[in-house]
Design goal:
This protein is of the alpha+beta class. The protein has helices at about 20-25, 80-95, 100-110, 130-140, 170-175, 215-225, 225-230; strands spanning about 1-5, 10-15, 50-55, 55-60, 75, 145-150, 155, 185, 190-195, 195-200, 210. About 25% of the residues lie in helices and about 20% in strands. Bound molecules: iron/sulfur cluster (SF4) and FE2/S2 (inorganic) cluster (FES).
């Protein structure tokens, strides 16, 4: 076990536990956007910063990427932490002024949009955290989306923003996106995402549409499970 302190509280966690989980496990709240349990971490949003002290040295680290260490002294609310977090939130608000998730978090943190950071009006709600890209690559295994262009033009999408041949319409990217940037719409037998329309499979038992046909075909090919067996919704299995 690793023993250390957070905001003066003694904490004990298994080796390898990240500070973010350790801190939350101790009942101390900490803001975060990009750390999702389903995907590897990017440290992109920087909202989860904390101040750590090792010996005489203090520094700011992203708690979702920093593993707990014996004897560490962690401060989640120091002036330095609050200043960094406020600045990060102001920058995020400038990038995605229309994000209701960010607006709510900012209000909770007592942060307001700053006129000195010119608001982007064309970036939607994307904070470029790559969670959607990672889930598509690491969990689904199709790599249908990525981050393209550079600098302030960087954006998430399919290559050349064209309809992707490899996307299976699973919606995993929507599930992990912390800001609701990715739009997926569903009608009974159709699902639209990333510019493509996917035909939905009706459950062979109850008749309810439950998953894109392409997704089931992909799972069938990957696992060797006959398509017919997959064409039954989880409620009827
Ligand atoms: S679309 Fe969502 S998950 Fe993907 S990079 Fe943007 S904010 Fe992150
Ligand atoms: S949650 Fe740690 S950097 Fe985003």
């Amino acid at each position: 076990m690793i023993n250390f302190t957070v905001d003066g509280k003694n904490i004990s966690v298994p080796k390898g536990t990240m500070l973010l989980e350790a801190i939350r496990g101790a009942g101390i709240s900490i803001p975060s956007l990009c750390a999702h349990e389903s995907v590897s971490r990017s440290g992109a949003c920087r909202l989860c910063v904390v101040e750590i002290k090792k010996g005489n040295r203090t520094r700011i680290v992203t708690s979702c990427l920093y593993a707990a260490e014996d004897g560490l002294i962690v401060d989640t609310k120091s002036e330095r932490v609050q200043n960094v977090r406020r600045l990060v939130m102001q920058l995020l608000l400038a990038r995605c002024p229309d994000s209701d998730v960010l607006q709510k978090m900012a209000t909770e943190m007592g942060v307001e949009a700053q006129a000195r950071f010119i608001a982007d009006t064309d970036k939607g709600k994307c904070i470029l955290c790559r969670s959607c890209v990672r889930v598509c690559e690491e969990i689904v295994g199709v790599s249908a989306i990525g981050l393209f262009s550079r600098g302030s033009d960087k954006t998430v999408g399919t290559p050349f923003m064209e309809k992707s041949d490899v996307c299976i319409g699973c919606g995993a990217c929507v599930y992990v996106c912390p800001t609701g940037h990715i739009v997926m719409t569903s009608t009974e037998d159709k699902r639209k995402i990333w510019g493509r329309t996917f035909k939905m499979q009706a459950c062979e038992k109850c008749g309810k549409y439950f998953a894109p046909v392409d997704q089931l075909k992909y799972i069938s090919k990957k696992t060797g499970t006959p398509f017919k067996e997959l064409a039954i919704c989880t409620n009827c299995r």
